[in-house]
Write a sequence for this structure.
């Protein structure tokens, strides 16, 4: 198993961000993490990344604590997370200097295919910054990708480019967890879907099984979380 | 120490403007020192000495703000990127601290240079030994005893608050650190007072004082006390301990 959560609860003071959740993630899946605002999507991804520590239960990634295995996973947070002075070249220096699995050629190809302009991030639009961050993330050769709302607040064309890149760069031994509110657009990508409601796992389903039952991911979203 | 070079480069890009502004601010202090003229020489030296001391204090505050700023990067997500990068907490802390250290050395050595210039403007004769002491030995002593531990403490404060803020009430780590700072200062002062000074002191200002005496003809100047070694070694050890603790807490930071 690539990663797993076992009876995991995460509390923020008196509030439960995630409550008693158990999920396994084998290699080679594209998993949609869906839910309304505050349902625990970001908390789930942060726990797997090692940015948060569980209040109860156990999180395992590559057979160990996530923080100790952080070099083997990619986490793309919901925030901009780029310094305003950074250009794509600066980002390359930064990634190359810190990550052994960063592929410069792949990064440059991604910059081209995602049409990322060669200027400072402070002069980029939100979509352009999102595409740069995705290029930085996908240029790494990791086995687990945790993408937290990479489509949020981004224009339609940028969203299409981002989704196309994810499809193109995915290898069958890699697992991608993608949280998004753009359920309809990303639906075709998902092999498995997790529906979270108020910090609990409401449904863990295979997308194909849903379709066989005559339900789309979007319809199930409405039924389960509506 | 893999990744140190990249993190130091990042630190330079993040905080370079602060460092340049700080060092550039010495032009302002130099201008202020130059304005102190046309008064009696001893008084002139006193005012200039006070301005130099003020520059040193302002520098320490700016350096602490530079090394400890966190809020924007936490909100912006850059802190998450750093936490998840492969280098250990030791490397992150070392890179951040080293950049502040280099900036601090440059700044305080230049303040030493300003002190020399001030004395030269007042026609105080200085030999090569005194110039070296003013520009290197005394700034480095002041750095070691005050600024370096202050920066290490600020860094520890930053890491500590970010480690225990997310999952609990945010005011708790802040309050702990404010109270901790007060108690630490008290213990430090009590400890320094109790130290038995056995190592030979450094006679660093004798040449300067002789020059001042020769120029001002002030016979009632107190003889310069030697600078004790013990506070320097104690504070440098404390700095190292604080940095090691900060590096260890880095592993527990949530974002």
């Amino acid at each position: 198993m690539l990663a797993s959560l076992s009876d995991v609860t995460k509390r923020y003071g008196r509030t439960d961000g995630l409550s008693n959740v158990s999920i396994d993630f084998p290699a080679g899946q594209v998993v949609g993490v869906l839910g309304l605002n505050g349902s625990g999507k970001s908390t789930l991804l942060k726990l797997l990344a090692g940015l948060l520590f569980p209040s109860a239960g156990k999180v395992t990634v590559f057979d160990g604590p996530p923080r100790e295995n952080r070099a083997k996973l990619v986490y793309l947070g919901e925030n901009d997370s780029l310094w305003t002075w950074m250009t794509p070249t600066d980002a390359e220096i930064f990634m190359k200097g810190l990550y052994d699995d960063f592929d410069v050629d792949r990064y440059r190809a991604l910059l081209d295919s995602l049409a990322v302009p060669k200027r400072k991030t402070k002069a980029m639009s939100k979509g352009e910054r999102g595409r740069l961050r995705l290029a930085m993330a996908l240029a790494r050769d990791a086995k687990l990708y945790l993408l937290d709302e990479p489509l949020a607040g981004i224009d339609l064309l940028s969203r299409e480019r981002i989704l196309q890149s994810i499809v193109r760069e995915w290898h069958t031994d890699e697992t991608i967890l993608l949280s998004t509110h753009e359920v309809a657009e990303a639906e075709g990508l998902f092999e498995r879907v997790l529906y979270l409601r108020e910090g609990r796992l409401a449904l863990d389903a295979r997308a194909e099984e849903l379709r066989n039952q005559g339900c789309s991911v979007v319809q199930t979203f409405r039924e389960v979380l509506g | 120490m893999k990744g140190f070079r990249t993190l130091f480069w990042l630190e330079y890009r993040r905080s370079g403007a602060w460092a340049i502004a700080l060092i550039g601010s010495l032009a302002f202090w130099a201008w202020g020192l130059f304005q102190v003229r046309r008064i009696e020489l001893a008084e002139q030296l006193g005012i200039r000495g006070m301005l130099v001391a003020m520059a040193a204090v302002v520098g320490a505050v700016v350096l602490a703000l530079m090394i400890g700023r966190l809020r924007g990067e936490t909100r912006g997500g850059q802190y998450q990127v750093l936490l998840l990068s492969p280098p250990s907490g030791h490397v992150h802390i070392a890179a951040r601290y080293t950049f502040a250290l280099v900036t601090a050395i440059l700044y305080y050595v230049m303040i030493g240079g300003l002190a020399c210039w001030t004395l030269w403007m007042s026609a105080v004769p200085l030999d090569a030994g005194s110039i070296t002491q003013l520009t290197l030995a005394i700034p480095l002593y002041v750095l070691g005893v005050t600024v370096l531990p202050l920066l290490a403490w600020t860094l520890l404060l930053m890491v500590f608050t970010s480690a225990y803020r997310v999952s609990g009430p945010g005011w708790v780590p802040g309050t702990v650190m404010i109270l901790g700072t007060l108690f630490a200062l008290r213990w430090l002062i009590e400890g320094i007072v109790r130290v038995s000074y056995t190592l030979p002191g450094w006679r660093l200002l004798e040449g300067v004082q002789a020059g001042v005496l020769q120029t001002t003809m002030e016979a009632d100047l107190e003889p310069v006390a030697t600078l004790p070694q013990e506070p320097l070694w104690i504070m440098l050890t404390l700095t190292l301990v604080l940095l090691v603790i900060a590096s260890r807490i880095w592993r527990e930071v949530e974002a």
